[in-house]
Amino acid sequence: xxxxxxxxxxxxxxxxxxxxxxxxxxxxxxxxxxxxxxxxxxxxxxxxxxxxxxxxxxxxxxxxxxxxxxxxxxxxxxxxxxxxxxxxxxxxxxxxxxxxxxxxxxxxxxxxxxxxxxxxxxxxxxxxxxxxxxxxxxxxxxxxxxxxxxxxxxxxxxxxxxxxxxxxxxxxxxxxxxxxxxxxxxxxxxxxxxxxxxxxxxxxxxxxxxxxxxxxxxxxxxxxxxxxxxxxxxxxxxxxxxxxxxxxxxxxxxxxxxxxxxxxxxxxxxxxxxxxxxxxx
Length: 281
Prior knowledge:
There is one protein chain. The chain is α/β, with parallel strands linked by helices. Helix content is 37%, strand content 20%. The chain has two domains: 2-173, Rossmann fold, CATH 3.40.50.620; 186-276, 2-Layer Sandwich (Pantoate--beta-alanine Ligase, Chain: A,domain 2), CATH 3.30.1300.10. α6 packs across α7 (151-163). The protein is globular, with a radius of gyration of 19 Å.
């Protein structure tokens, strides 16, 4: 596996790949790799000849009171994992390679970044779009692979691609879960043993809310019931039932529905969602 810290050497490698007629897929990560990340790599291998995984804990997507300094850093283990599954290249850039002129959060993602998670993490998506755009500019991947657990982020990245006419195809992968239903996440390592026991109740309630809607409960009532049930264990930031295509209110023309939520359990923030077709209701 090739490992790059600086853009110049990386660009030479990518140039040689393209001259050999090989397509390139990028899997952007912040490290702390788990099985969910490996599913993204599997999908990248299906799409392309060369798979690159980037590991960069992006400072611009963290607010001052968030966990930038504490975010799990497992670089040595991440390298071993990616070598074992035969990833072609790993990009571990220094901050000044990504932000040579210094970091800035002046990157507007529009109204999509102001709802749901954007209310509780107001600069988060601007920072995500900033680093993703920068990685795309450096790597110029044919494909980029993201997980659907971060669904709002996925839609924002799709919008970024359209607005900037970036010639990269975005590929999404369904959320991978633990055996008890908890969505896999690097931040799950923050959970205490007691919180880890309670954490699966989050997804179980999303499943129950979907069933309630399918059984005829109107959306406002189903949402209110979900908030009440979640609040027994979690601090609920939001739970919404929306059009899955654009995270707007459901109308008669909405074909896919998403139940999307963020909660806090102890010191840990969890996000999750369920998507289903309107015809299933």
